[in-house]
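Service request form, structural biology core

Requester: graduate student, group of Dr. S.
Request type: structure prediction, single chain
Budget code: on file
Notes: please return the result as structure tokens.

Sequence provided:
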Amino acid sequence: MTNLQFLWFLLIGVLFSGFFFLEGFDFGIGMAVRFFGKNTAERDTIIKTIGPHWDGNEVWLITAGGAMFASFPMWYASLFSGYYLILFLILVSLIFRGVSFEFRANMQTDTWRHFWEWAATLGSFCAAFLFGMMFTSMIEGVPMDAQGNIFGSFTTYVNWFSLVGGVAVTLMCFIHGLNFLQLKTLGSLRDRAQAWNKILYPVLIVGEVLFVVLLYITTDFFAKKAASTWTILIVLVLLTLIAWWGVSKTHNWTAFIASGLSLISIVVLIFNGLFPRVMIATNSAHSILIKDASSSPYTLHLMTIIAFSILPIVLVYFIWSYWVFYKRLKSPKAA
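Core staff response, request fulfilled:
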């Protein structure tokens, strides 16, 4: 494995980390539109909290997919073909969620406005759940031949571990969204988001314990990398506890940063367990390794120059956009 191959494996992990940190609270806010907002005025305010940001946050996913295609084409081909149906459903969910914000704002009747509110909520829920299910299924190991073709059955993708992973990621995104709502609003919405998270955090901790048990049973993470796996899991639990403490003490920034870092720790856990592989096969001889899946050295070298030339500009823009829209929104008065 070369340094550039290792670098691009790390960069793809960073891109997915950025996606789940930023898009995670977008998914949570999307789910909150119908599950949390009590009336049209509250739902308007909830959507406004992510209005300037949600489409920009999705760029992290597009960039991660593009980087995977360019730097590790064999990884891209195996993952996207083997998980085609799940990725198709994710795409449909993201499309419905994306158009729902615009269509809802232009609907003249309550019936259609409610329809697009449900589209935002269910699209966000399904996208978060399917992402969690896909990545959890992937680290179990999949039936794969020597060419990287996946021959999965229904239970390859849908099983107890993948379902728990999907629920856990969905709940983490919802909690992260409520923490963002506490940062961006004042009044009843902020107070209610805090009250909900005080209830949801104990549920999440139970879910994390169940996830760890199934991770131990169904993956080779503990057998191959026990020390790093346990370290990451301990950090995950500590971040969850810190976020819970932040919610209890109304330290909104602490709760938000900790819940976002919890999502990042899931990505770190997955990439740590994958290394030096990019796809895990049930027959270990067929697993795809980083050194075998990458593009040519010239391609990686050229991509590195382009990436590090553009990345500072993108980061400055993201920081600037969040700074411009940093002010809190007031909760609508009760009717």
